[in-house]
Write a structure and sequence with these properties.
The protein has twelve helices and ten strands. With 250 residues, it is of the alpha/beta class. Bound molecules: guanosine-5'-monophosphate (G) (3 copies), manganese (II) ion (MN) and sodium ion. This is Diguanylate cyclase (GGDEF) domain-containing protein.
Length: 250
């Protein structure tokens, strides 16, 4: 309860922070986007990872307030990058089940885009495969609303759930993110799931990004399998915007 109270104060007091992790186009090595990942800094400088407070925020409903704060912060950052000559960098934001189902989601996004004059295609909404599969008709309707607004949609942690081909075709997602468990398995020669997801995505006209790429050998295999994009420690860890800006300007 006290943690929840502290989290509410941290959100209201603008004490949370966002780290950004680049997403790389495998053929060119170009940075095409970044994923926003929230962190909670303690007074001693230690960072609490999202795993330790997002579930609590989700259960309590505080995730709505956190999501509003995150979207405003991300849009402000996109405007800053535009002013620094780094325009065109898309930012992927994680949206939990409660946020995705919340009635205010579309208005919230539209309002933030308008406030900072941001082209909608520079925002991507990530939902996990398990959220995407919960109530098929509702999810399809919500993704249609997001697409009409012009934002992109990614299915996160893909491969861990049980999406059917027919359902996936109706979802109209822009991107599948192969769960990093399957990228880790590539170290033992097990590439079949990654290969299957890449082929599935391409059959349906959906781009495919590999998560958790840590070694050049994984990137090489993914490139040979035709995977479009990658994200992971091989390229960069999630970092504060200022560090990422320096890295991008190199
Ligand atoms: O770096 P990593 O520990 O950042 O992230 C752990 C998990 O926390 C990820 O699975 C991610 O989906 C989730 N997460 C990170 N930032 C956010 C956020 O702003 N909102 C939501 N809903 N989840 C987030
Ligand atoms: O939203 P999602 O669950 O995909 O969040 C991505 C998570 O993966 C974050 O916790 C992020 O810090 C973490 N991550 C990003 N790149 C790597 C990587 O190369 N290896 C590992 N082990 N974790 C990573
Ligand atoms: O320092 P860290 O463990 O986050 O670095 C992970 C990888 O990300 C490095 O091997 C490097 O390829 C890349 N990286 C991190 N920081 C920078 C940077 O400031 N400039 C460049 N060019 N690459 C970086
Ligand atoms: Mn994610
Ligand atoms: Na993921």
């Amino acid at each position: 309860l006290s943690l929840l109270n502290d989290l509410e104060l941290a959100i209201g007091g603008n004490q949370l922070t966002v780290h950004y992790q680049p997403q790389i186009e495998l053929q060119t090595g170009q940075v095409i986007a970044v994923e926003a990942l929230v962190r909670w800094p303690l007074p001693d400088g230690q960072l609490i990872p999202p795993d330790q407070f997002i579930p609590l925020a989700e259960q309590s409903g505080l995730i709505i307030e956190l999501g509003e704060w995150l979207l405003d912060t991300v849009c402000k950052q996109i405007a800053t990058w535009r002013d620094q000559g780094l325009g065109g960098l898309r930012v992927a934001i994680n949206v939990s089940m409660v946020q995705f189902n919340h009635d205010g989601l579309i208005d919230l996004l539209a309002e933030a885009l308008r406030r900072y004059l941001i082209p909608p295609e520079l925002i991507e909404v990530e939902i996990t495969e398990s959220v995407a599969m919960r109530k098929p008709e509702d999810v399809i309707a919500r993704i249609d609303q997001l697409k009409r607004l012009g934002v992109q949609v990614a299915i996160d942690d893909f491969g861990t759930g049980f999406s059917s081909l027919a359902y996936l075709q109706r979802l109209k997602a822009d991107r599948l993110k192969i769960d990093r468990a399957f990228i880790r398995d590539m170290g033992t020669g097990e590439t079949s799931i990654a290969e299957m997801v890449i082929n599935l995505g391409h059959k349906l006209g959906i781009r495919v990004l590999a998560e958790g790429v840590e070694f050049p050998a994984q990137a090489a295999i993914l490139r040979s399998l035709g995977c479009d994009e990658a994200q992971g420690y091989l390229y960069a860890k999630p970092a504060p915007a200022e560090l990422l800006t320096l890295w991008l300007q190199e």
